[in-house]
Amino acid sequence: MRPGLFVLVVGPSGAGKDTLLDGARAHAACAQRFHFARRVITRPAGSPGEDHDSQSEADFAQREEQGGFLITWRAHGLSYGLPSALRDVLDAGGHVLANGSRAVVAELARRVPHLVVVEVTAASEVLAQRIAGRGRESREQVLQRLARKADALPSTVHTLRVYNDGTPAEGVDAFVELLLGLCAPLTLRPLALLTQEPLCVVHADDFVEGGMLEVAAVHAGRCERLRVPVVVGTDGQWVPPGHIGLDARSAERLGAPAGAALLARSVAPARERDLLRKKIGGEALTEGEYRRLMREVVDGRFERTELAAFLVSATQSLSDGEVQSLARARAALAQTLSWDEPMVVDKHAIGGVPGSRITLIVVPIVAAFGLAMPKTSSRAITSAAGTADAMETLARVDLTAAEVAACVRSARACIAWNGRLNHSVLDDVMNAITRPLGLDSARWAVASILSKKKAAGATHVVVDLPCGPRTKLPTEAAAHELAHLFERTGRALGLEVRALVTDGSRPIGRGVGPALEVRDVLAILGGRADAAQDLRAKAALFASHILAWHPEVGSLAEGHKVAQDLLDSGAALQAFEAIIDAQGRRAEPVLPGSWTHEVLASHDGRVEAMDGWAIAGLARAAGAPTDLGAGVDLLCEVGQRVARDQPILRIHASSPQGRDAGQRAAEQMALANPAILIGSEEECLAP
Amino acid sequence: MRPGLFVLVVGPSGAGKDTLLDGARAHAACAQRFHFARRVITRPAGSPGEDHDSQSEADFAQREEQGGFLITWRAHGLSYGLPSALRDVLDAGGHVLANGSRAVVAELARRVPHLVVVEVTAASEVLAQRIAGRGRESREQVLQRLARKADALPSTVHTLRVYNDGTPAEGVDAFVELLLGLCAPLTLRPLALLTQEPLCVVHADDFVEGGMLEVAAVHAGRCERLRVPVVVGTDGQWVPPGHIGLDARSAERLGAPAGAALLARSVAPARERDLLRKKIGGEALTEGEYRRLMREVVDGRFERTELAAFLVSATQSLSDGEVQSLARARAALAQTLSWDEPMVVDKHAIGGVPGSRITLIVVPIVAAFGLAMPKTSSRAITSAAGTADAMETLARVDLTAAEVAACVRSARACIAWNGRLNHSVLDDVMNAITRPLGLDSARWAVASILSKKKAAGATHVVVDLPCGPRTKLPTEAAAHELAHLFERTGRALGLEVRALVTDGSRPIGRGVGPALEVRDVLAILGGRADAAQDLRAKAALFASHILAWHPEVGSLAEGHKVAQDLLDSGAALQAFEAIIDAQGRRAEPVLPGSWTHEVLASHDGRVEAMDGWAIAGLARAAGAPTDLGAGVDLLCEVGQRVARDQPILRIHASSPQGRDAGQRAAEQMALANPAILIGSEEECLAP
């Protein structure tokens, strides 16, 4: 028999842990399923608060000495302990439910076989109100407690949340629903099945209810989670009782080996379908309504078709006020990071322009000045390179939250991959719907992006809005409207946001592809005379706006001067090297691929336009971004005169196959949609 | 080894069978996978048309005599034969592809182990144009051929369709895609798995491609089909090569036993995503665009989330012109029935009102007059009784298409369950989305309903639009607008449609529940003096509108007179009895349940309103519609004065448990939302 679950309930003062625990104790099914741990506290037995076993400090210390506690901690001048006898309950397959402290979570995880932390929480205004009404503690103590809320729980522990800012009965309902949804640990059996969607199989004996399980694997210093539709095996042929079968890809994503214990939970059905219905009907939702709705969305309680219907409505009607409400609601739901810094800077680009790798210049300038900038970026999805792909030519980018924090401590900044750090179920569904269907999700994205920046602890954010015929923002008017929405929504979140509309009509810099873009960046940081001036100027502009926020700089003009100095002095380059070292320098940087093919001008003429998307397409054909060395090097500029047979771009790849594929793509493209358009009047005059 | 598939390609002249077969023959993968049957025809070898083996009529007859043919048929004065040697190809596991005639389908199904019919078709205007351009046949011959198109293929055969009204290359692409998607017959292995959504498992060796299989089982005189997402087993543990595992519910729905051969086909990915995108973006689609889009929707090529997004847009913006285009596009896609009748009548109600079982009166009146009315109706979904539930208290309602036709031959009409007869993937998804989310799908429903009526061969349709605060049409304006849309859309389909806005503010008749409603119906048909006059009047109104269409009646006033006569003379009752006999009379009719509970007036007063939904809720609580005898009998009318403790409604059930459940529901309801509202001024005056 597998040992049972240890469920530790934590939460700040005012969150109502005691109320929820009392409610669960009074609930027959909960009382039957869980052993409620009784705490030992060095507080007189008659004092208000929870029912506990009272011991003197001396007796407590002696009991601790004799191994009488599973774990102990101190808080508010008292000692707390959970008796070691609870281990016997677990060993017999029983589940223990205990009121605890977030301070002991990491240690407790080492002492019990299967720890589940239930974090009881509520909106800060609700917490403050409840604590104030209590009068047991001084104002200082209250503030101290609330500050402690920011301590992140260890990412290695399986944590679930209960929001308790409604009535006590609502809170108890939600808590009981969560507790009864917890399954006993199940033994992982990877199935030799390839599925389109994740799938798990449990035996009918282990089935709790509902169509969806959240499964968590605590393994190799991580806790990975998945939501998976459940298939119930009615005989033991597929999966015997006590086991959970998981399709091959899901098992791989969880990263746990066959035989590992998985912690599973039935996802309860949605309660807030009326709110979804209201929005689909075209009505606006309030912040409180978004908060209730988004909690259930994030918990995976809705069908994908329902989310699709909701998101279509959200792309059609989302007022400025709703964008702000949604941003605040989502920020409140996210796991929040806090930095011990007066200013934490971030940057975002909507869409982006091929070659415009300014993040790799802005971050070093800002870090060189001394501001904290824990930047996380995406990999390429449809483009030739994302910032994370480019950075990966030099350093590790797959950082954990703890590693991001360590980088900021040692180098003031990082440039990490965001894939692991702030994943959103909702954005996954949104992308799966909006991308193939080409829906305009820009206003939705404002709430999504800024709520993530807020949750990541940023205080100041610059946003790059490239505007041009092939970008997500084809008109100046649309771009400026979105810029204002970004700035207003930032204010609603308590963020300083500066959104700049930039030229998205042509590539920026010369290289398109991870290593080629980094080559351009290093030329600028290294102060080389032949560096791409458009890329340098754009990076300096964004850095200036950031620096201008700092009281010692104070103005954009001064910010510009400081940014130039940091570039010219080599301080930015030095900061970049420090960031690379902090993240983990690659033994050898990835350089532009040495298999090249030059595309020649078909006729004399003036370069009239460059199609950034066609150029990115060539780079992808040559292997970018998977081949970090692949890409396209632009050998001419818009407005420049070129002669027939003059090389106008060079395709790079790390293999002859990539080079050949790039060459074929270039030949096909020349017929249909040339990446570089050379003026045709000269062509007409030619013989 | 299982024998291979026999794929018979049929289709009307002008559909382009030869072009598609030639295209497939030229396609390397098709040529490798299929044995192309060469036909023997009694036509000189040099004549135009397909390459064939030519034989004299005498040689042909002799060869037929000697068993040299798998099957033969005559057409256009010639004999056609497929050589019997094709059986050896099948026995060796090979797949045969042959150009055939729909006339031999039923017989061929008995002679080959696994028949798949591919019906090549095109819009009628395209067919006519192609045939006219050919000049090989006289105009009369062309018309004869086109008329033959209406012959339905036997429902016992697995039939697939290829639409060939684009370019020849597009047609060949679609045909080749379908052929290559066909799997070899797979052995059914029901899996002991309960899933939320259907699921099948095939071995990696049998996997064609794509995420969805359409599986068909030909068994017990039926061909049942399902679309199921595929899971691929990478070892033989779950499902060995050559087998197909199917979740328990899907296997049950298919109705085939373990070990049966299933015909499976990979559903190809969508090609028309741009059209979906266009509609989601709020643009209108043309009829041609709807035709292309709906073909793929019906084929199951889109994700459910994509359909959800599309349907939300469709509920938000669907112009009158689009409703008509959509109706025509959907009618063209459906399997069409044709009746050898100048008038075929149908009736539909949107939403419906508790107790308003007029169909059971209208159909007999119309049949007594002599018009054909093959009526199919739904069972209750959220109400206490559907027309099919009510009819089921007297007769079988689960009729096949052939049984519907036989009823019309012998009794001029039927009242059958529509569940098996006109099922729509699209409407399933629409209902799954709109019902829980409360979306207004009325305009969409106009296209859906009328296209089904058209495909079922109706020429004249009456539509009942109950209007009232708790119906789908809360305002008169909305109801009249929808009525006009019904009538205009009918015209676009070549249907006569009359849509009547009726009073949906209160129940009609006295009984609510299958057997109680039938009791009301029989009282009217039997000419009993105490029959419910509101129900009789409403039924007579709809019958009058139908009869008025007939040239011998000609006016609504005359129609009304004829309807009354048919009721008064007992002719309608006689027609009803004939319909019951034709469908299959129940040995004993189901009567209203004998376990009853009477609800008494709480005070003296006037009945001000009846809440039809609350009354239906009581009937459901008592067991309706599963218990056909359960329901509520109304013992008072709106406007009537009642005395305290006077019975105002009676709950019926077929068991004491049902009666008790109904009683409990009535007691709870009285506190919150009384089903029958008795004026409160008297209550206030009471001591």
Question: How would you describe the overall organization of this protein?
Answer:
Two copies of one chain form a homodimer. With 687 residues, chain A is α/β, with parallel strands linked by helices. Chain A folds into five domains: 6-181, Rossmann fold; 186-266, Barwin-like endoglucanases, CATH 2.40.40; 273-317, no CATH class; 345-583, Pyrimidine Nucleoside Phosphorylase, Chain A, domain 2; 595-685, Alpha-Beta Complex (Aldehyde Oxidoreductase, domain 3). Chain A is 41% helix and 21% strand. The first copy, chain A, contains 26 helices and 28 strands. In chain A, the strands form seven sheets. In chain A, strands 10-15-12-14-13-16 form a six-stranded mixed beta barrel. The first copy, chain A, has a five-stranded parallel β-sheet with strand order 2-7-1-8-9, with helices on both faces. In chain A, helix 11 (287-298) packs across helix 13 (320-333), helix 14 packs across helix 23 and helix 21 (533-548) packs across helix 22 (556-568). The longest helix of chain A has 17 residues, at 476-492. Chain A is globular, with a radius of gyration of 28 Å. The model of chain A is unreliable at 682-687 (pLDDT under 50). Chains A and B meet through strand 11, strand 14, helix 10, helix 12 and helix 17 of A and strand 11, strand 14, helix 10, helix 12 and helix 17 of B. Strand 11 of chain A pairs antiparallel with strand 14 of chain B.
